[in-house]
Amino acid sequence: MKNSEIIELSTEELVAKLGEEKAQLTKLKFAHAVSAIENPTRITKVRKDIARLNTELTKRKAEAASN
Hints:
Blueprint: H1 3-8, H2 11-34, H3 41-66
């Protein structure tokens, strides 16, 4: 997910997407622990997407607090 796509989402959509990504990360970790997954770099991509979503949420909370 690109930053431009994340910025276009509403705050509610960000929270929902963050929950989905965390669930996906958990599934990937379990699948990788049981047997090696086909593309282990997906774990890294999902982690980075979660970080991007958290960054945007934090930025919006800071803007709301300053107003």
